[in-house]
Design goal:
Keywords: Membrane, Transmembrane, Transmembrane helix. With 185 residues, the chain is mainly alpha-helical. It has one domain. Helix content is 62%, strand content 2%. The protein is globular. The structure holds iron/sulfur cluster (SF4).
């Protein structure tokens, strides 16, 4: 099965909705859980093979490249890079969970900026076209943290796709690594 060539519009819509209001970022949880639900149901990587908007984005941008792609580094395909990315993903999720609990308990204020690679603050505030009132601070914090994680991994994937083959990110994508582990079991 091949990705629909317009699926990348979902990725662009996701990031645009974050500018409309950051709480839309919570829709990204669907992108994280659906691949695993489909995997368990179908016993194959249905999401990766036909429905992933992110890989559609990389493929689409790859087609606009005017230079020749370099070969994907061997340690991406056969080495430990996918485990390093999985570790980053695990640390990131732990950070998101622990900091959201701390905000919910009033121990720390909500983070209302984006961060690259968990800790590097983006030096401007996201425009918010619509205000949502009476949303608990921990929900806002969770939304910013989640959007930051999606933004980071998408940028990393884009850089890899521009340097190497368009879908190089897929060789180290944590969702693919988790899927492989589940399938082996
Ligand atoms: S490996 Fe990751 S980015 Fe690639 S198709 Fe699967 S879920 Fe999408």
């Amino acid at each position: 099965m091949r990705n629909n060539k317009y699926l990348f519009l979902f990725t662009l819509t996701f990031f645009t909705l974050g500018i409309v209001n950051i709480h839309f970022a919570l829709l990204g949880f669907i992108c994280m859980t659906l691949p695993i639900i489909l995997l368990i149901k179908n016993q194959r990587k249905t999401w990766c093979q036909g429905y992933c908007p992110r890989s559609s984005l990389y493929t689409t941008i790859g087609k606009t490249k005017k230079w020749k792609s370099r070969n994907t580094p061997r340690f991406f395909i056969k080495g430990n890079m996918k485990w390093i990315m999985l570790l980053y993903f695990g640390i990131s999720l732990s950070f998101i969970t622990m900091s959201t609990i701390a905000v919910a308990r009033g121990i720390k204020p909500a983070m209302e900026i984006l961060r690259f690679l968990i800790i590097i603050p983006i030096p401007f505030k996201m425009p918010q076209l619509i205000d949502m009132i009476e949303i608990a601070p921990w929900v806002t914090h969770l939304a910013y943290r989640f959007y930051s994680m999606m933004m980071t991994t998408t940028i990393l994937g884009l850089v890899l796709g521009l340097l190497y083959k368009p879908r190089t990110w897929c060789t180290v994508c944590p969702i693919a690594t988790i899927s492989d582990v589940i399938l082996k079991k």
